[in-house]
Write a structure and sequence with these properties.
Number of strands: 0
Helix content: over 70%
Number of helices: 15
Strand content: under 5%
Distance between the termini: 119 Å
Largest sheet: none
Order of helices and strands: HHHHHHHHHHHHHHH
C-alpha cells in the first residue's frame, strides 16, 4: 500500500471529532463493564442497581471520567475541571440509564451482540488512542523536558478506568485489595504506557517516522487486540515477552537452570514409574484372569479333594 495513503488515513483518524459518537461508544462500554462487574462481585445482593441507583451512577461516572480526573489531580488542577461542559456528563448519564434500565434490557443485549460490539469497541479504541496522544502533547506543553511525567499522564488518560477500579468498587460497597490493576495490569494499561512512550519517542525524533503514520500504527494495535479479545476472552500478546524478561531480569540463572533440571528429572522419574507399573500389570493380569487357567486350577483342586477323601475312607475301613 502507498505510504501517502497510510499517512492520509492516519491524519484523518487523528483529526476525528470525538464528541458525540466516539464518546457515546466509550460511555456505553464503560457502563456495560460496570454492570458486568456488579454481577460478578455483588451477585449476593439482589437488585443492587435498583436498590442503590445513586451508588451505581457514581461508580459509572467515576470510571467514565477517571482518566481526566486522575490526570487533572496529578497536574495540580481541579479534578472536576472537565465537568464544566455539562453535555459530557449528561451524555454519560443517558448512556448509563440505557445500559442499566432500558426496557427488556434491550441496550445491554445489543451491546453484547458481536457485530455491534465490534463496531463500538473499535470506536472506543480510536478514542483511547486520541486520549493518549492528546495527553502526551498537552503535558509536553507544560513540562517540555519531563518525559516521565508526560508518559505517566498520557497513559493515565488512556487507562484511567482500569486504575480506578478499586475506588469504583469501593463506591459500591466492595473492597478487593488483592485484585487491583497494580497487581494484575490489563493489556489496556500496558498498551497505554507503551503508546505514550512511542509518542514521546516520536516527539524527540528517536522514532523518525511521520506522526500520522505512528498514530495509525498505535490505533491499529489497540483495534486489533480489541477485536481479538471479543472472540477470545483472554488475550494478551505481551505475556510471552513478560515471561521471558521476568525470567532473565528477576530470576538468577542458577535458580532457573536448577528448576528446569528438577522438573525434567521429576518428569522422567514419573514416566519411568508409569512404564514399570504398566509392564507389571501386563505380566500379572493375564495369569490371574485367564479363564482357562482358572478352570484348570479348580479341576485340579477338586481332584485333590476327592483323592484325599478316598484315602481317608480306606484307612477307616482298615481300622474297622
Amino acid at each position: 500500500m502507498n505510504k501517502e495513503v497510510l499517512i492520509d488515513v492516519g491524519s484523518q483518524l487523528a483529526h476525528l471529532r470525538m464528541y458525540p459518537v466516539f464518546d457515546t461508544c466509550h460511555y456505553l462500554l464503560t457502563a456495560l463493564q460496570v454492570r458486568d462487574d456488579i454481577q460478578q462481585h455483588q451477585s449476593g445482593t439482589q437488585n443492587f442497581t435498583r436498590r442503590h441507583p445513586l451508588s451505581c451512577w457514581l461508580s459509572t461516572m467515576l470510571v467514565c471520567f477517571s482518566g481526566s480526573i486522575l490526570s487533572n489531580f496529578l497536574l495540580g488542577e481541579s479534578p472536576i475541571k472537565d465537568f464544566v461542559h455539562h453535555q459530557h456528563l449528561l451524555l454519560a448519564t443517558v448512556c448509563w440509564y440505557l445500559v442499566f434500565y432500558s426496557p427488556l434490557d434491550l441496550v445491554a443485549r445489543l451491546l453484547r451482540f458481536v457485530p455491534i460490539r465490534i463496531l463500538v469497541g473499535v470506536a472506543k479504541e480510536i478514542q483511547r488512542t486520541k486520549k493518549v496522544f492528546e495527553g502526551v502533547h498537552s503535558t509536553l506543553a507544560i513540562y517540555p523536558d519531563g518525559y516521565l511525567i508526560v508518559v505517566l499522564i498520557g497513559a493515565i488518560k488512556g487507562c484511567g478506568g482500569s486504575l480506578m477500579s478499586s475506588i469504583d468498587r469501593f463506591f459500591r460497597g466492595v473492597w478487593l485489595p488483592t485484585q487491583t490493576e497494580f497487581l494484575f495490569p490489563s493489556f489496556a494499561t500496558k498498551a497505554s504506557f507503551i503508546s505514550a512512550i512511542i509518542f514521546v519517542l516520536e516527539h524527540v525524533q528517536i522514532i523518525q517516522f511521520e506522526r500520522e503514520l505512528v498514530y495509525l500504527c498505535v490505533a491499529s494495535m489497540f483495534i486489533y487486540v480489541r477485536v481479538v479479545t471479543i472472540f477470545f476472552k483472554q488475550y494478551d500478546p505481551l505475556m510471552p515477552f513478560e515471561n521471558i524478561s521476568s525470567g532473565i531480569l528477576f530470576n538468577s540463572w542458577s535458580e532457573t537452570v536448577s528448576d528446569a533440571y528438577r522438573r525434567a528429572t521429576a518428569a522422567s522419574t514419573t514416566s519411568g514409574a508409569i512404564n514399570t507399573s504398566a509392564q507389571q500389570q501386563v505380566t500379572v493380569i493375564p495369569a490371574a484372569l485367564t479363564p482357562l487357567t482358572a478352570t484348570t486350577a479348580m479341576i485340579s483342586t477338586k481332584k485333590e479333594l476327592n483323592n484325599d477323601g478316598q484315602v481317608k475312607g480306606l484307612e477307616v475301613k482298615k481300622r474297622d
